[in-house]
Amino acid sequence: MSTRLSAAIHEPFPPAAALLMLTPWSPHQADHAGRLAGALLHFDQDREIYCEGDEAGTFFKVVSGVARTCKFLSDGRRQIDAFHVTGDVFGVEAGPSYSLSAEAACDCTVTSYRRRGIDASAFHDAGLSRQLFAYAMQSLARAQDHALLLGRKSAVEKVAAFLLDWAKNSPSGQDVTLAITRQDVADYLGLTIETVSRTLSHLERQALIALSSPRQIRLRDLAALRGFNA
Amino acid sequence: MSTRLSAAIHEPFPPAAALLMLTPWSPHQADHAGRLAGALLHFDQDREIYCEGDEAGTFFKVVSGVARTCKFLSDGRRQIDAFHVTGDVFGVEAGPSYSLSAEAACDCTVTSYRRRGIDASAFHDAGLSRQLFAYAMQSLARAQDHALLLGRKSAVEKVAAFLLDWAKNSPSGQDVTLAITRQDVADYLGLTIETVSRTLSHLERQALIALSSPRQIRLRDLAALRGFNA
DNA sequence: CGATTGCTTGATACCTCTCAACCCAGGTGG
DNA sequence: CCACCTGGGTTGAGAGGTATCAAGCAATCG
Known about the structure:
The structure is a homodimer. By secondary structure, chain A is of the alpha+beta class. Chain A has 7 helices and 11 strands.
């Protein structure tokens, strides 16, 4: 999915972590300091949350649903950069404006945080600055993996990677419940909706997955799916 | 080209810059503090500088030549993430190990810096932490643009974008002198070497560029080239 | 119900890859 | 001096993967 700022909170503190990966940080903590008022916002599917180039005065955390961040070409072609699920933070910028657009991939509730609070805190707080750096580097690592996928993988490899990625969040580790459309999957993988559909059907025919409904996918052969990548 | 940590040094300080984009930072400054010994290293073309997964105890700045950072699939397919030219910093990590491999794209001299120094400084110095954050976010923005290119652009659009990108560094703004092979260009754009070659020939036939030699490219119609993107 | 949305499937086109030959410049050594 | 080799680049013919265009299906919703 996306880079998760808050994910670190749930993980044990790494024993010999690098200096630059220190205490986890969460907007919640900032809430307590009273600096970052969090407004709860709801967006219907496909509603724009913000647009590339807008002044980046706010960042967001997903409360429920899925948000997507993406870029567009002038003729409408779209590349989705990441999906953001519950707990994920998105819209954090270093510059003055958003470098991506953000939209609700399905009905979606988010908390918004005023950036000024973070900026001000980070100005004094080296720890917070380090958190932001770690967050950015984590996003960067994801973006680099994504580039490898987009530039060098075939359709099957892309879809397999996508499924495995989403399955990691499921309790069983082999069930994927998609809250997003085929179009979103396609625009994330750099494919068309038809190719995504065909590839899923193909994988089902091979008995590598089972589609109980279009949005409910069971990974029946994790080893084989992993084999598509490396 | 790549994200440049030091590029900011040469640019006027933005008047109303966001809080998170403060004073430029350069390894040189750190040198003066005596914390980051800079060793000068030379790499012949295609020599490995470091490998994905290696312990990231060092980062680098290009003195001359071009370095590339990239990822590989198990069967050898390669995706180049970025090229780094004189002045560019690469190999900065938040985690314990490198997320990419780095190699000399041509004969290449780099300065190496011990990471410990930076880590230690950043621990106390909020300003340095902010610099690192800004650096990471700039890299992230480049990676996102790259993903759009890889996922959604055609071969001509990719090549045109590549040429325009490199021409920005040339004094005239319309001459590109490549120090890298067609294979590197291809692996950066997610194409094959033949497609890159054919596309360049195609652009030359259209009189949009002139190839005085394979490595010496003149952009004859910037407007038309820009038109390929948007 | 009819309309809409999301998804699947088929036929065909086309873009890029693959495989192969060839060119050119530079270096090496007989 | 030239034959030879090598690395980098170009070009061609054909194959193949994905896109495009189009039709149809199922579920949902007014």
